[in-house]
Recover the amino acids of this structure.
């Protein structure tokens, strides 16, 4: 018996068949800013020999919002590392060699990392970052590198092999640095803030769209991480971060009560 077109997946993964080492991906609304950003990346060592540059042209209106555009980058970029960055950053300080050192450092301390950035937090009151904003002041706080659950969107690097995407039910231009870190955590990966110093020609802004998206992302993840039963074809179990509640709800007697509740609730709805 012959088996045609067999692909050895293990061999494919070992070969890491990416065309480029880096893909630098940007949503562009101002071509002059993007041109300066592009030049600074080239000067910092991200040359076109092993780097590809991708952008979404939003100069005549928003053809793609951040969530849709970045998902296109993450799916289609043919590079080992995908850099998602703002058009208004300049690599004035650290260069490609510095980023390579940060990557090597993370490979040593956590081989399960999938995302890094230059500013983030896992503490409600303390940032971990080193970045110079439009005020030309270098803001360095916290410990670097530091594992985080949210990253600032000015500069984010993602491992292509992690197969991470942004939420399909969110849209806009804010908080995707939080969304991608939460999704990575759900997939079993880590995110880090590292020391990669650059110039960000903006102080950022929180307009009405920011607050609206903040409410939406809170609602999305509050609902997703809610306490609930999961029923498979062969078993049933309760999800909760509370170990005691999880133990109680998985007791057979309690499960039978819940089962009867849903059984009679379903019959009642069928009457109407």
């Amino acid at each position: 018996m012959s088996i045609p077109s067999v692909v050895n997946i293990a061999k494919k993964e070992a070969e890491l068949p990416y065309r480029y080492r880096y893909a630098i991906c940007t949503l562009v609304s101002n071509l002059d800013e993007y041109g300066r950003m592009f030049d600074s990346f080239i000067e910092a060592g991200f040359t076109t020999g092993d780097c590809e540059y991708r952008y979404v042209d939003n100069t005549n209106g928003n053809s793609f919002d951040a969530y849709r555009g970045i998902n296109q980058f993450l799916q289609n970029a043919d590079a080992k590392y995908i850099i998602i960055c703002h058009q208004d950053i300049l690599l004035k300080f650290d260069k490609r060699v510095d980023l390579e050192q940060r990557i090597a450092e993370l490979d040593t301390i956590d081989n399960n990392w999938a995302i890094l950035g230059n500013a983030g937090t896992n503490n409600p009151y303390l940032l971990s970052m080193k970045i110079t904003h439009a005020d030309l002041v270098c803001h360095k706080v916290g410990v670097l590198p530091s594992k985080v659950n949210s990253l600032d969107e000015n500069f984010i690097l993602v491992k292509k092999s992690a197969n991470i995407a942004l939420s399909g039910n969110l849209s806009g231009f804010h908080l995707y640095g939080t969304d991608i870190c939460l999704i990575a955590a759900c997939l079993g990966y880590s995110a880090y803030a590292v020391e990669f110093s650059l110039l960000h020609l903006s102080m950022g802004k929180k307009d009405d769209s920011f607050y609206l998206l903040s409410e939406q992302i809170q609602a999305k993840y509050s609902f997703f991480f809610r306490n609930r039963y999961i029923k498979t074809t062969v078993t049933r179990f309760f999800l909760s971060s509370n170990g005691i509640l999880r133990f109680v709800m998985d007791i057979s007697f309690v499960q039978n009560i819940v089962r009867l509740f849903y059984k009679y609730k379903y019959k009642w709805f069928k009457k109407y």
About this structure: The radius of gyration is 23 Å. Residues 15-223 form a domain with the Spore Coat Polysaccharide Biosynthesis Protein SpsA; Chain A fold (CATH 3.90.550.10). The longest helix spans residues 252-271. The chain has eight helices and 15 strands.
